[in-house]
Structures are given as structure tokens and as C-alpha cells.
Design a protein that fits this description.
heterodimer, A: alpha+beta, Ubiquitin-like (UB roll), DNA polymerase, domain 1, five-stranded mixed beta sheet, B: alpha+beta, Aldehyde Oxidoreductase, domain 4, Aldehyde Oxidoreductase, domain 3, 3 domains, six-stranded mixed beta sheet, 23% helix
Amino acid sequence: MTSPTTIPIHLTINGHDHSLEVEPRVTLLDALRDRLDLTGTKKGCDQGQCGACTVHVDGERVLACLTLAAQVEGRSITTIEGLVEADGTLHAVQAAFLEQDAFQCGYCTPGQIMSAVACIREGHAGSDEEIREYMAGNLCRCGAYPHIVAAVRQAALEVQS
Amino acid sequence: MTIHDLRTRHGDASDGSADQVGGRLSRVDGPAKITGAAKYAVEQQLEGLAHAVLVESTVAAGKVRAIDTAAAEGAPGVLLVLTPDTIPPLKTASDWFGTPPPDVPYCPLARDIAFSGQHVAAVVAESFEQAVAAAALVKVSYDEAPAVADLSDPKAGDGIPIDMMTKEWGEAEAAFASAPVRICAAYNTPREYQAPMEPHGLIAAWQGDRLTVWEPSQWLDGMARTYAEWFAIPFENVRLVSPYIGGGFGSKALALSHGAVAASAAKMLGRPVRLVMSRPQTFTGYGGRAATRQTVTLGADRDGKIQSIVHRGVNETSMGGMWVEPLGSVTSVMYATPNFSSKQNVVRVNSVVPGAMRAPGENPSAFGIESAIDELAYVVGIDPLEIRLRNYAEQDPHARKAWSTRQLREAFAAGAEAFGWARRSPAPRSMRDGNQLIGWGVAAGTYPVRRAYGEALVRILADGTVEVESSSIDMGQGTYTILAQTAAETLGVPADNVVVKLGDSRFARAGVTGGSRLAGIMTGAVHKAAGAALDQLVGLAISDPRSPFHALQANTLVVAGGRVSSPRGDGPEVSIAELLASVGADQIEAKGDTMPANSTAEDRYKAYTTIATPLTHTDGDYSRHSWCAHFIEVRVDEDFGTVRVSRVVSALDSGRLYNPKLAESQWKGGIIMGIGQALLEEGIVDRRHGRIVNNNLADYLVPTNADIPDIQTISVGIPDPHSSALGGKGVGELAIVGVAPAVANAVFHATGKRVRDLPITLEKLI
């Protein structure tokens, strides 16, 4: 049995640089949660099925559980912790989630919000039907879907105006 | 001396401002959840944390012949490999009724295999990745024995009669035989899984003989009791911490064997250990809803009036454990009938012991009776809504007691109006839109009001802010929010000034969060504790010579908006903080509980750590239930048999709503889980190996956003003083009950095909 080998990686997360020594097999999700105390990104299935670990890499939504930390070296990563503005102002999607009660237990919520921000940015929030389709990769077992649709619709209007 | 009026406020469902009970205050734990700041149990960052991964049996029955741990033990980073031979024996714990356990050792890793997926070993390593890799190196060999795969297995047999489930009155068989109209059909529901988004797991850490467990929990005090009994340490030595819970739906109420494994490993290593089930492991690490079979026979006259109901039910349980899913629960209360018989068996199969999942019992029970009465409606040619009104139970037909409140007639009326039921074309296959067959279905639901006891502590701090503490929990129902509203209203302070602390077993005690009982109990306890704190505050203000109110010689004062004044406005007005400063008080603290006054410490321990409670829903003069009516539209593709739910209107009687905004969310969540049950969810067993093959979220289908239309909910409840201190009944379980039959009834209306096996998948329609 070979001894564990680690590699140095440098991640830019929410505008901050982090240097880590990790095994190549460490996922971005586990690097965030276990090495960097950025636990806002959730682990729901660890196999790319639930969307709870959704983060942005260079502005696009990706599943952190299916992404190796080493794959995103030098790229810009945004997590739920990085969505709030420096003065504490909530992102329009976050505010809309609170107002519309678009969550209950809150565990899928960071992933839903990261997906919603990207969904609006992609131009996929044009109708309720489109929002449902483009938010379908983020499971919510509490069943907040109608309120998630309402929140994305509301935030999309605010972001566009 | 009655210093302030502890009169309970009963309003309608939306009385008061957001700060008060009944107001639409946004979730107070919301900001933490939308920013990622909310730390769930296993997200605590602890020094020296080690990581455990479970190894599960790959056969469904037999014995472990040998476990070869050599490769795993030699793998990088491995600290410990646990097997049935190396894990220290624990003591057997009592069950959730508190039944004294047999004095035999308990081993959380199995030698004798009773189901596929049973924990047989565990690997603990420095990192999660190392533990996962090493767990794959553990080689287990078995002497495999024949297994009973599921209820349909020819070896399953008829099972064991559960006599306490028998309910009978009149002459049901004879009345059925002589009834002019007779129908009889069998209704089946499959294994279903709670599938909360947060997987089960924990961090266990020891300090001497004191154990701290960070674990998502619907029942801190009950789980603490189990850990204490396993490790033979005093109850007070176990601390459960669970401030946020990523969904439970019944699955997170008990300490389970994986918890015993993690706590054992932590003790052996002298380090905190984290163990989180993989998503596939969550399908066998604890039980979902048992598969069920029911036969419902209805005898009726030609006007659709029911003369007799004969009901027989079966649910699966495990080889060693006992789970009874009460299948006659809705059958026996929904409709008036002079003759009734319900009996139930359980059948042992090689499965993990099934468990509670949202409305256990009522949910599958309603699928039977609410499908059957729909079938009767078509046989006698009466509208499915009308036949329900014709058989309306004016009192509890089983308990023969008056309903505390039953707004079901109002629910039918309000739902039908909003849905447009009057425009329904009666004949099956008579409504369509292009190649889509349209069907409209209705079904009712109910859930009993479960009552128990709770404690709360209310503390008014020197700065005028208020703390509420309770070992109850919030897994998304809104406990943080409604308890803040209750304290704010009772004390006369803004809800913003109230901090609610939950999810720590060191706080004032609470029983299980299940059966929709928590809100009714805890609002009552907080109301009482806050009332006592207010009594103290006003008492100080009146009697302390240093108080600005002392000279007033008033016998009461008013507290509103966080400010204290005299009722006639003829004295000073000061903030709570100023008042406390004037009398030199650091804080005021009061505990309130809902236990009978003469309760002993032992009574309290039993009340909070077991489910043995004397308060049944038919205690005293009334039968207490929540009620609902679902109106559902489906669209069925005529060529492909695909079913889509396109419209839902549900009218619900949960009594008074403590916070309508949050109650509506819970109702919709229940309806959505019900749509999943109707159309998608089914644990599929590989009959060769007794194994669940779709043990992941891509193959076990839960509803996605794209599966769910907009949903309209209507509150028809009125305050029910017999059900809770503040007038509410149950919310969380109610709304799922009746959804699956409403969908099945709509599918029949659309297609003319009656599907009696859930889920309603396309191959059953083409």
C-alpha cells in the first residue's frame, strides 16, 4: 500500500485565496466543508443527484460533489457565503427566498439559491414553466417548489430592473 | 395575586400583526439558512476529528462467516476497524415506550444478518477519503440463508394478527352480505422513503464519562436516553445538540445503530468521530414507510349510504423488530357506518424495521378508504363529492364522541368552489385537451391531534431582550418562529427582541417532535413560561420601592411594544430595560410546563424520554382531529400513459394557525410528498437478493420542481380549545393524507382505469 500523497492547490473562493495540501481525490465539496469551514455548501447525496452542493465556478453552476478540488485551481469559485455583499446586503435571490418562504429545513436552500442566481443569469427565468424546468436539478424534500418558483420569478424581475 | 391576565387569545387564522401568534412573520431562522451560516449537526469543526464509514451486509439473511480486515487496517490513515468481534458490547436500551430492556448485550454491528444493508463493520480514519477507501477493502464472507424479500414473496405467509388494531361494531359481515350495493377491492402501497435532504449522521465526542452528540434529531431527550442506556451512564451525562435539522419526516426520532457505532469508536479512540451515512446507506440504515396491503369492502344502499365497512390490512415488518402501520385509522373515523370491522396483520420480511414516515397509518389508510368510496360513487352514480357528504360522520363513529371541531364540510365547500368542481363532467374520459385526458378527483384526509407535555424557559435580560429555551427542535416546521411570536405576544415585546434557542438537551425538556404535536405543546409551554415571567416583571415594578411605578399603587401594569406603563396612562412609561435597571435586576427567568401540577421527577422523565403518554386524542368528551379535502386535476397522455398533476386546491382544517405563512408551506410540502407517493415513489426490491435496487435519489424518484404545479391551500380551521392551549390542531402530517387517492381518483376520471397499486406509473395505464 502506498502512502498518501497530497498536492498543493490554490483556490479562489468568494474573492479570497486559499492554499491547501490535499489528496487528488478530494472533491471541491469536501474541501469546502471539511478543510475550509465553508459548510454553507451542503452534501445531500455525494453523487450528483440532488443539487444541494451547487456552487459557481467562473459564474456557472456546478455540482461541487462531482468536481475535484484540483480541477478548479485558479478558477473563481463562489459559494453561498459569498453571495451577500460586503455591507451585509442580501442578494435579491436570498431576499426573495426569505420573503416567499421558499424553504423549510434549509438544507437544500444554499444549492437552490446558487442555482437560482445562475438560472436568472442564464436567461432561464422567463416564465414559471421555464423556472420549474431549469430549477429541476435541485431537489427539495420539504416541498418548497411553488415558493421557490415565486422567489425566482420575483428576484428575476428585481435583477433585470 | 393575578398580576396580569393569562387569558388565552383565540383569534381567527390570521389575527394580529406579524409579531403576534397568528401573524405571517417570516422565518426567524431564515437569514441563517439563506446565507449558509446555519451550522447543521455534523458541520461542527472539532479538533482531532476522525471519520467513520460503515460497511454493510450484501446478503439479506444468514450469518457473517468471517471479516478480513487486514487490508483495511493497513490502508493509509486508518485508525480503527470495528467488527462484531472488536466493538465493545453495549447494554440493550429500552424501547420508545420505555419498556425495560432485557439484560443482554447489544452489538450495533451484526453477526446474524436479517436484511441487506445491515451494518457489519466500520472503518475509522484520519480523513473521510481514507475511511471510504479503506471501507472498500473490508472483505466479509457469509453463510447465506434464504430470505423473504417482500410482502409478495411466496414464503411471506399471512403474518401475525395484531389484536390491538381490531376495531369492530355492529354486524359488519352480515350487513355487507345483505347490502344492495357491494364493492370489494385490494389497495397496495409500496415501500417509501423519507429521504430528507440531509443524510443521517452524527459527531460523537467523549470527555471522561460524558458524551456529547451532535446529531440531527426529532427527539433530543429520547435519543439522549438511548445513548445513556447503551453506555450505562447517567442520562444527565449525555448532551444532544441539534440546532438545525435538514428534514426528518419521521426518520430522525430515534438513536440508531450507526450512532452507537460512532459513539463507540469515539470512546475507543479518545477522539471525536464523525459518521455520516452515504445516500445509498440511508435506504437501509433505518426504515422507511412499510409496504402495505388493504382490502376494503363497502356495503351500501342504492343512494350510496354506507351500511357496512369490512377492512383487512397487512404491513411488512422486519424479522426481529415490530412496526405496525395502523391501516384502519382513517377507515374507522371518516364516514358514518352502523357496521364496521377492521383487522390487521403484520408480516415479517428480511428488511430493516420500517419506521415513521409522514402520517404513518393515516396515509396508506386513506388511500384505501378514499379510493373505495370513489369506486362506490361511480357504481351508484353519485358525484364523488356528494357521496362523501351523504356519509358525513357527525360524530366519531368509533369513539362515539363529539368532534372537538370538524370543518370538513367547510373544507369540501371551500375547495370545491375554488377548484370549480361544479363544472366537472361526471363520466370518465369525458374531459380532454387534445391528446391529454383530463381528470378531476377529490379525497379527504385526517390526522389525530396528538398531545403530550413540554417545558420552556423564558428569560428577560437586562437590555430588555428575551430568550426562550427548549430542547424541542425546528426541522423546518417553524418552531423558532412561532415560539418567538408566542413569547412576543405574551410579554408585549416585538418579536425582533426575542431570541429562541432550541436543539440542545441541556435546555428545558420536550418530548418527540412527531405526530404534529410540537407546535400545540410548545406554544402552550412558552405561553405559560412567558406569562410567569411577565408576572414577575410586573410584580417587581409594582412592589419594589425603587421602581418608578411604586408610588402609583397600581395592581397591574401594561407591557406593550417592550414598554411598561399603567393601564390608565397616568404614570410613567419606561422600557423593560429601564425598569429592570431601576430595581437593580439583572434578569427575570421563569419556567413553564404543561405537566399536571403534582407530577414527580419520574413522571417528567417518562413524559419527555418516552412516547408513553396518557393523553389520547379521544380523552374526555371529544375526539380531536385535523381534516382536509384535496381537489386535484391530472392530465394523462392518451398514447403514453404519462400522468401530470396540473392543478391542486386543498382546503384544510388545522384549527387556529400560529403562523399561516409557515403553515401553508408545510401543507404544500405534504401535498407535494403525496404527489410523489401517488406517481413516483417506490422502493424496488431485487427478489433474488432482498436488496433495494433504487437506493439513491436518481432511481428512487422524489418530486422535482418540474413535477409540481402551483398549489392553492385554503385554511378553513377555527380555534379548537380542546386540542391545544392556543387553539391549533396538527399541520405537518395532515396535508399528505388523502393526496394519493385524490390523484388516483382523478386518474380514474381521466382514463376509466382504476389503479389500486401505488405508484401510478405509465405501464399501469397503457
